[in-house]
Amino acid sequence: MPPSTRIRNTLATAVRVVLVAVTALALSLTTVPPAQAAGGGPSISKKHFGTLSNGKKIDVYTLRNSGGMRVKILTYGGILQSIEVPGSGGEFANVTLGFDNLSDYVKKSPYFGCITGRYANRVAKGRFTLDGKRYRLAANDGPNHLHGGVKGFDKRIWKAEPFKRHDSVGLVLTYTSPDGEEGYPGTLRTKVVYTLTGDNRIRMDYRATTSRPTIVNLTNHAYFNLRGEGNGRILGHELQINASRYTPVDKTLIPTGRIARLGGTPLDFREPTAIGERIDSRNQQMVRGGGYDHNYVLDSRGQGLEVAARVVEPDSGRVLEVITDQPGLQFYSGNFLDGTLRGTGGRSYPKRSGFALESQHFPDSPNRKNFPSTVLRPGDVYRTTTIYAFSTV
Ligand code: BGC
Fold first, then answer.
1. What is the DSSP letter of 187?
2. Residue 163: CB within 6 Å of ligand 1?
3. Reported pTM
4. Which of 105, 119, 201, 271 shows its CA 20 to 30 Å from the CA of 222?
5. pLDDT, tens digit, for every residue of 159-169?
6. What's the pLDDT tens digit per position in 356-382?
């Protein structure tokens, strides 16, 4: 090769190296979350998430709105696996606890993000009587029935139909629970519609019908950490709950039947208060719950959808509002998390690193005549809506 050509080649290589270095630097300075980078209108896509031991395949749907908020939903349990929302500086974080693989959901999940049913929360000793007939449900939480039993709605495979509207996207999930499943009477046809709106809301519309008189109480069991999952405890989150009464519990977390005033107790969140401020109080109810694990009787005005709770995380500026038409809200401060679970981002979940706000009917209503009824009869339609609304301060 003549020397002039060698010099030209060397120069060309040097220019290429500099160009690559400059491009890499520019890219590293302008890193944007993938959700934002994609641009454009709302979208929904499907991918394989995992395979159950019986060979059944589970999908994950990714919903995205035009602002870049992204929500991932599994056909297993209708689980909200990931919820990416912006903070006040525009930075996105996944604010819900979860796993990055199916096997952990099957084996270890403390109800992360799932549709919870047929009866969310507890039924004392798993027993109830309806129209003079006695029914027996599994005792899967000490002596009591919890969240639908051994294989509740959180562990079922839901049929999924995606849809797209002008500025929202969603997923229609359906599951038919056969008569007698987990001890519940009646074939229950269930539909849950998740909608991600353009204004950063996840709307959940529940519908169910039955072939025989039964009980039903559906909710979603997402755990939140508005700092981002795996990013420490939730004790600094400021919580407000629009309730002046609650249902005190016995040692096994079953309501005593009383509807008591919250005023003067560490459970009163009518004024915004940090979750950690009174959590270690020696108040008997707090000791029984190991922290907060109580049903709040919402001060609703009976006008359909109302704000039940508002949570502000001061460092990130992220805000969550829970809006519902339900009479109750379980506030659970993640007391049973113990650091043994490793979450979506690879970090462990210590005690109180996530909280749940579960819109619902009161626990053990089937055994309490003074609580609003959870009975569903053939010909009637169970319908309820809850919204997780995200914003920033
Ligand atoms: C209950 C907790 C329970 C948790 C299970 C909550 O709804 O109130 O007592 O431990 O679910 O993850």
1. -
2. no
3. 0.90
4. 271
5. 999 999 989 99
6. 999 999 999 999 999 999 999 999 999
